[in-house]
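Troubleshooting: if your tokenizer reports a length mismatch, compare your output against this known-good record of 195 residues.
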Amino acid sequence: MTASPAAEPARMRRSAGDRRAQLVRIGLELLPTTPVQELTIDEVARRAGISRSLLFHYFPSKRDYYTAVTRAAADLLWDHLIPAPGTAPEQQISGMLDRYVGWVETYRESHLAFVRGAAGGDPWVSEIYEETRGRLVEVALSALDLPDDARRRQLVLAWFAFTEDLVGHWVQEPTMSRAELLALLRDVLARLTAP
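Known-good structure output:
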């Protein structure tokens, strides 16, 4: 008589929140090489070890999934850019710019898809994009010790648009050193916000 093989331990079931977090994390892992709108649900489900239909149990549509990944990416960008508490005001903008350039170097295609998706009027991208930029404008105004009025908000938003475009192109084709790029961006901001 042979002993029966030991029963395999039952698979631990994940809570709905844990599974959603896992699926978003997989989307974030794919972002360095794949813009969010190009993530395939089949690949995400495969990496999670679940069926495609089960993914739609946690996210009712592709758009819901893409929105969750986009919001998570925007939150990561925010966490990455925000100055550490206690950072001297004169170093806050320089540090944010340096970290932003590094972010675009790492996630260029995904970042451009995010910026273009917002510019293209895709409402779910635009909402997250505008919210993120609004928060960054507040940080910039605070770091520069400027009043938060409509005029300065417009100027700093315009500077962010200029920065996004220039950094996106520079990462693809560097026409100046990184130090020169950062100095130019700081100079443009100082000129725009001068009294």
